[in-house]
Amino acid sequence: MPAPTDDLGLRPAVPRDVPGIVRVHLRARAAAPMPAPVPGDAEVARWLGSRIGQDETWVAEVAGEVVGYARFTRTWLDDLYVDPDHAGAGIGSALLDVVKARHPGGFGLWVFASNTPARAFYAAHGLLEREHTDGSANAEQEPDVRMEWPG
C-alpha cells in the first residue's frame, strides 16, 4: 500500500486529461471485483471523453500524472476510480471529499454488490446502503447496491 502523498493535486478535469482518465478507469475496473464493462475499451474512451464538460469531473494528480478521478452530477456520483498502483494512499478519500464539498446536500451512487472493497470504502465514509437490486437494470446484468450520502 503506497504511503499518502504530499504532492497530490486535485483539480477540475480538462480535455487533455481524457487519456489519463480512461487509463485509470480501465485499470481500476480490471483490478476490482466487479464485472467487466459491457462496452469495449474504445467505446469507454469515447464515452468518458464526451462527458468532460457535461458532468463535473475532478482529477487527482501525482507528479503531473492522473492517478484518479471522480465524475458526478448534482445528484449522482457516477465514477470514482483510483489507479491500482496508487490505491490505499488516500486519493479516493480526497476525491470523495471534493464531491461531498461540491454537493453538501447529499448524492447517491450505484456500486456492484460484488465490489465489497468499494462498498466498505463508501460505508466508512458515511454512505448508507439504501437499495439492493438483481442487476436487471444495468448493462452488466449484475446485482448492485444504491448507496447514498445524506449530506
How would you describe this structure to a colleague?
This protein is α+β, with helices and mostly antiparallel strands and 151 residues long. Helices cover 30% and strands 29% of the residues. The protein contains 4 helices and 7 strands. The strands form 2 sheets. Strands 1-2-3-4 form a 4-stranded antiparallel beta sheet, sandwiched between helices. A hairpin with a 4-residue loop joins strand 3 (65-72) and strand 4. It is globular. The protein starts with 7 loop residues before the first strand and ends with a strand. The relative contact order is 0.18. The model has no long low-confidence stretch (mean pLDDT 92).
Question: Keyphrases for this structure?
Answer:
alpha+beta; four-stranded antiparallel beta sheet; three-stranded antiparallel beta sheet; 30% helix
Show the helix and strand layout.
Elements: E1 8-12, H1 18-31, H2 41-51, E2 56-62, E3 65-72, E4 77-82, H3 91-102, E5 107-112, H4 116-124, E6 128-133, E7 144-149
Antiparallel strand pairs: 1-2, 2-3, 3-4, 5-7, 6-7
Helix pairs in contact: 1-2
Topology pattern, helix = H, strand = E = EHHEEEHEHEE
- The pLDDT mean sits at 92
Number of helices: 4
How far apart lie the N and C ends?
A: 30 Å
Rg measurement, Å: 15 Å
Instruction: Pick out the low-confidence regions.
Output: none
- Please indicate the percent range of residues in DSSP E strands (runs of 2 or more): 25-35%
Q: Which strand order spans the largest sheet, edge to edge or round the barrel?
A: 1-2-3-4
Largest pleated sheet: 4 strands, antiparallel
Helix-strand category = alpha+beta
Q: Which quaternary structure do these chains form?
A: single chain
Q: What proportion of the residues is helical, as a percent range?
A: 25-40%
**What is the 3D form?**
globular
Count of strand segments:
7
